[in-house]
Amino acid sequence: MGNPAAVTGAMLTCTFGVAPSTLNVIPAKRVTVEGRPVATIPDIAPGVNIAPFGMCTSLTNPMVAAATAAALGVLTPMPCVPVVPAPWAPGAPRTLVGGLPAVTAGSMCTCAWGGVISITMPGAVRTSMG
Predict the structure, then answer these.
(1) Taking the CA of residue 77 as centre, how many other CA atoms within 13 Å lie in the half-sphere pointing to its CB?
(2) Predicted confidence band of residue 27 (pLDDT cuts 50, 70, 90)
(3) At a CB cut-off of 8 Å and minimum separation 6, what does 76 contact?
(4) Contacts of 5 (CB under 8 A, 6+ apart)
(5) Which among 82, 81, 129, 83 has a CA at the least distance from the CA of 105?
(6) Does position 40 have pLDDT exceeding 90, yes or no?
(7) Model pLDDT, residue 126
(8) Is the peptide bond before 90 cis (omega within 30 degrees of 0)?
(9) What mean pLDDT value characterizes the chain?
(10) What is the architecture of the domain spanning 3-122?
(11) Domain ranges of the chain
(12) Which of 83, 23, 38 is nearest to 58 (CA)?
C-alpha cells in the first residue's frame, strides 16, 4: 500500500522556515482525489504551488546573511521566498497524473537556500497511491 496523495491544501514545512505553508495545485490536470487536485512532481513553483514559510533563517539565503551581518552576527530572519530548483522526490512510481508521478506523503524537495521542504499533512486521508 502506498502513501496518501498530496493534494491542494496539503501542509508543508521547511527546515529553515518559521511557519508552515500550504501546497496549491493548479486544477489544469483535472485529476482529483477526495475532491481536490492531485500534485505531481514538477509542482514546485514558488508562490504558485509552494507558499512562503513566513520568515527564512538560512544563512545561505543572501537576504538573511546580509541582515545578520548588519546586526553584527545576530541571526536576523528575513521574509521567505522559496527557490526550488528540483522536483518533489520520490513521486508515486506507479501512479501517473497527466503522465507525471503523483506526489505523496513522504515526498520532499529542497530549497536553494538549504531547506528541506516536506509534507506534514498530505490533504488526502483515505486515498493512497503507490
Answers:
(1) 12
(2) confident
(3) 64, 67, 68, 70
(4) 33, 34, 38, 39, 92, 95, 102, 103, 104, 122, 123, 124, 127, 128, 129
(5) 129
(6) yes
(7) 65
(8) yes
(9) 91
(10) Sandwich (2.60)
(11) 3-122
(12) 83
At 128 the pLDDT is 54
* Main-chain phi, psi angles of 14, to 5 degrees: -125, 140
Q: How far is CA 15 from CA 18, 34, 111, 126, in A?
A: 8, 29, 10, 27
106: left (phi over 0), alpha (psi -120 to 50) or beta: left
Q: Which residues are CB-contacts of 73 (< 8 A; sequence separation ≥ 6)? A: none
- With contact defined as beta carbons under 8 Å apart, do 36 and 125 qualify? no
Q: Using CA atoms, how far apart are residues 18 and 73, in angstroms rounded to an integer?
A: 19
- For residue 29, pLDDT over 70 is answered with no
The mean pLDDT of 93-121, rounded to a whole number, is 93
Neighbours of 28 (CB within 10 A): 8
**CA 128 – CA 130 distance, rounded (Å):** 7
* Cβ burial, residue 96 (10 Å; 0-12/13-18/19+): middle
Instruction: Check if the beta carbon of residue 89 is closer than 8 Å to that of residue 108.
Output: yes
